[in-house]
Amino acid sequence: MSTILMETKSTEKLIYQQEDDIDSTKLHCETLEAHNTTLCVENIRLKFEIEKAKEEFEELLTKISVYREKIEAHAKMFLEADSKLPVMSELSEKQQMVKMLKEKKEELMHDLQNPEGKIIKQVQRKIARLEEEISTIKQSIIAKNDMLEEEKKSHVKLRKDIAVQNKRCDAILKRLHCQLNKVQSSKRQWYWNIQQMEKDAAKLRKRLGIAE
Predict the structure, then answer these.
(1) In whole angstroms, what is the distance from residue 64 CA to residue 72 CA?
(2) HEC profile for 106-155?
(3) Keyword set for this entry (predicted)?
(4) Nearest CA to 192 among 203, 184, 202?
(5) Predicted local distance difference test score (pLDDT) of residue 193
(6) What is the value of pTM for the model shown?
(7) How far apart are CA 159 and CA 153, in angstroms?
(8) 3-state SS assignment for residue 1
(9) Whole-angstrom distance, CA of residue 164 vs CA of residue 171
(10) Interval 51-88: pLDDT, tens
(11) pLDDT at position 145
(12) Is 114 left (phi over 0), alpha (psi -120 to 50) or beta?
C-alpha cells in the first residue's frame, strides 16, 4: 500500500513537473511567436523601405544616366571644338607622329634582332658598297700619288733646267754687258778722236786761211 502511495506521489510530482515544463514551453513559444511577429512586421517594414530605396535608387540612376548623357554631349562638343583649334590639330599630328615613330622603332628593334632582317641586309649592302667605294678611292689615291711623284720628278728636272738656263742667261748678260761697255768705251774714244780731229782740222784751216 505504501509502495502504491509513493508511486502515486512520484507520478503526481512527475506530472506537475511536466505541466511546469509545458507551461514554460508554452511561455517560450508565446515569446517566440511575439518575437516572430515583431520580426515579420520589421521584415515587412524593411521590405517597404527596400522597395522605396530601390525606387529612389532607380530614379537616381535615371538622373545620373541623364546627367552622364549631358556630360558626354558637352564633352563631345568640347572635344570637337578643341579638335578644330590649331594647337589641338598640331597636338594630334604630333601624337600620330609619336605613334608612328614608336611603331617604326618596334619594327626596327624586331628587325635588328633578326639576322635575316631587312635592316641588317640593307646595312650589309651599304657596308659592301662603302667598302667598294673605299677601295676605288684608295686605288685613285695611289694613282694620284704616282702621278704626283712623276710631277715632282718633272718639277725637279724642270727646276734644274731652269737653273742651267738662268746660269746661261747670266753668262750671256755678262758678256753683253762687257760688249756694251766696250762699245760705249769705243764710242767715247771715237767721239774724242773725232773731236780731236775736228780741232786739228780747224787749226789747219786757220793756218791755211781757209774759211769754214
Answers:
(1) 12
(2) HHHHHHHCCCCCHHHHHHHHHHHHHHHHHHHHHHHHHHHHHHHHHHHHHH
(3) Coiled coil
(4) 184
(5) 85
(6) 0.31
(7) 10
(8) coil
(9) 11
(10) 888 888 888 888 888 888 888 887 787 677 666 656 56
(11) 86
(12) beta
Given a cut of 70, whether residue 6 has pLDDT beyond it is: yes
Question: Residue 148 — pLDDT band, cuts 50, 70, 90?
Answer: confident
Number of Cβ atoms within 10 Å of the Cβ of 82: 13
Residues 187-204 have a mean pLDDT of 85
Residue 177 has pLDDT above 80, yes or no: yes
CA gap 18, 89 in Å, rounded: 94
How far apart (Å, rounded) are the C-alpha atoms in residues 202 and 212? Answer: 8
pLDDT confidence of 1, banded at 50, 70, 90?
A: low
CA distances to 46, 83, 100, 183 from 86, in Å = 59, 8, 21, 99
Q: How confident is the model at residue 41 (pLDDT cuts 50, 70, 90)?
A: confident
CA 173 to chain centre: 75
Is the distance from CB of 89 to CB of 83 less than 8 angstroms?
A: yes
**Residue found by looking up cell 611603331 in the block:** 103
17 half-sphere exposure, CB direction, 13 A CA radius: 6
Cβ distance 98 to 89 under 8 Å? no
Length of the chain: 212
Which residues, other chains included, contact 57 with Cβ-Cβ below 8 Å and sequence gap of 6+?
none
Q: Rounded distance, CA 22 to CA 47, Å?
A: 36
